[in-house]
């Protein structure tokens, strides 16, 4: 295989045999599968799966997608011979212990001294849980998040029947703290969601300033770091961005998605609470001490019941190979992603043909071909997106409120409410080495439609 790594597959056979040896005392089971039938179906699956964008390849530089590390893929698959359920120790003893270890390492990564947390299906579930706890502690009070926060917060607030409001953004797509303060003066805000790496732009809300407001107005802070959380490990952030990350040890709750930047297969989000006593909210008849005991069943502190223990096994294995520590190999891979974004942004800025929409804070670049009006820019973005795909370069199109870009692009006529831009999530470490090739193909794509 040239594109899809499969060399590591042979290790799976060896590891399954090692796992199997642990159950050798049981009477043998005859479980020979019908190989021909399996083969037919599996090849049919492979045929169907060819109908996909080439996500693992660096020329896929569009949406927020990143291939799992081989060790995550293998550990996940290996654990499926047991198929543990991390709802309760009865269903997944080893994988529950591995989950607690892996989650504790994530809490340490953010500099937390104490934590209560667990894995869950993804960022949506994790944020649901954090806002559910926020609502229990601040009943009836408003949840607010920036206009560029993930849309899930508004919808989750609806599910939880909590009032929700959006805070305007500044021209860098960060929460505008002056606008927030005006809202705080009206009272009734119980929780502010700080987006640490906005999904569309990678913008990081100014957490230090938010903490100053918290000292005056007293609200909970929930950090949605689903996409950006791991960037706490790198040493090449802009000073302002790094200052926000340095405050993550002071938020009340935090969400990070190992399935976004943590090299995991889908189905791996994580919610963390700094105060372990919130565990008491999950189950009324359990005393707090139950939740800090070593015999904790993860289902006792989780809204989801049955859950893939495989996700915990994969994350544990990945963190064992690539510990989430500053200065480590994993941190270096993330720093390469950010470097790739900086290189692409510099090329865009240096070329009259293009306009950069935001200075990248993490590894997302948003730009457009120079144009006279929002409608013309939007048409060009969509045309270039399609022409790039014909060059095997896969970008994304993202739409922003025209008001968000009016300051940065003063010469544009804002003839419609939104403007479509090109967007690239450079989430693979390999993107750094491929950014010249991506640029060359982008120019070819743009030229192919200019004629
Ligand atoms: C992806 C994302 C979410 C939603 O998480 P899922 O894992 O897709 O459910 C929430 N917030 C932010 C900032 C995200 O990037």
Describe this structure in words.
By secondary structure, the protein is α/β, with parallel strands linked by helices. The chain has two domains: 93-321, Aspartate Aminotransferase, domain 2 (3-Layer(aba) Sandwich); 329-450, Aspartate Aminotransferase, domain 1 (Alpha-Beta Complex). Helices cover 42% and strands 13% of the residues. The protein has 16 helices and eleven strands. It has helices at residues 9-21, 35-49, 70-79, 93-109, 123-137, 152-160, 177-185, 207-217, 239-245, 258-261, 288-292, 309-321, 329-350, 374-390, 402-405, 431-450, and strands at 116-120, 142-146, 164-167, 189-195, 220-224, 253-256, 269-273, 354-356, 364-369, 396-401, 418-425. A seven-stranded mixed beta sheet has the order 1-7-6-5-4-2-3, with helices on both faces. It has a four-stranded antiparallel beta sheet with strand order 8-9-11-10. Helix 5 crosses helix 6 and helix 14 crosses helix 16 (431-450). The longest helix is centred in the C-terminal third of the chain and has 22 residues, at 329-350. Mean pLDDT is 95; it is low at 286-293. It binds pyridoxal-5'-phosphate (PLP).
């Amino acid at each position: 295989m040239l594109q899809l790594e499969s060399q590591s597959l042979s290790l799976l056979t060896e590891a399954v045999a090692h796992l199997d040896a642990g159950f050798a005392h049981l009477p043998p089971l005859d479980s020979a599968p019908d190989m021909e039938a399996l083969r037919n179906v599996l090849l049919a699956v492979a045929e169907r799966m060819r109908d996909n964008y080439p996500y693992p390849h660096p020329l896929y530089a569009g949406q927020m997608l990143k291939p799992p590390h081989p060790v995550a893929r293998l550990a996940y698959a290996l654990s499926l011979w047991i198929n543990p359920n991390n709802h309760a120790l009865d269903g997944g003893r080893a994988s529950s212990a591995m989950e607690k270890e892996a989650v504790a390492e994530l809490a340490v990564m953010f500099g937390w001294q104490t934590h209560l947390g667990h894995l869950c299906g993804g960022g949506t579930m994790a944020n649901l849980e954090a806002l559910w706890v926020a609502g229990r502690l601040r009943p009836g009070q408003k949840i607010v998040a920036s206009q560029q926060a993930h849309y899930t917060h508004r919808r989750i607030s609806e599910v939880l029947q909590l009032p929700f409001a959006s805070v305007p953004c500044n021209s860098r797509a960060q929460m505008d703290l002056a606008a927030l303060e005006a809202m705080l003066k009206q009272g009734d805000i119980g929780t502010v969601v700080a987006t640490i790496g906005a999904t569309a732009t990678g913008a990081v809300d100014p957490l230090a300033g938010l903490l100053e407001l918290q000292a005056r107005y007293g609200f909970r802070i929930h950090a949605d770091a689903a996409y950006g959380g791991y960037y706490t490990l790198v040493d090449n952030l802009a000073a302002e961005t790094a200052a926000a990350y340095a405050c993550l040890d002071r938020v009340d709750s935090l969400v990070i998605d190992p399935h976004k930047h943590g090299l995991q297969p889908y189905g791996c989000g994580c919610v963390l609470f700094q105060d372990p006593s919130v565990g008491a909210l999950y189950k009324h008849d359990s005393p707090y001490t139950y939740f800090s005991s070593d015999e904790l069943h993860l289902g006792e502190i989780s809204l989801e019941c049955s859950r893939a223990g495989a996700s915990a096994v994969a994350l544990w294995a990945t963190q064992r190979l690539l510990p989430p520590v500053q200065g480590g190999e994993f941190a270096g891979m993330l720093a390469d992603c950010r470097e790739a974004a900086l290189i692409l942004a510099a090329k865009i800025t240096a070329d009259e043909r293009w306009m950069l929409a935001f200075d990248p804070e993490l590894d997302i670049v948003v730009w457009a071909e120079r144009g006279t009006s929002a409608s013309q820019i939007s048409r060009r973005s969509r045309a270039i997106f399609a022409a790039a795909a014909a060059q095997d370069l896969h970008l994304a199109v993202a739409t922003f409120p025209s008001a968000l870009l009016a300051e940065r692009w003063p010469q544009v006529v804002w003839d419609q409410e939104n403007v479509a831009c090109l967007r690239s999530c450079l989430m693979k470490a390999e993107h750094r080495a491929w950014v010249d090739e991506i640029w060359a193909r982008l120019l070819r794509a743009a030229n192919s439609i200019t004629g």
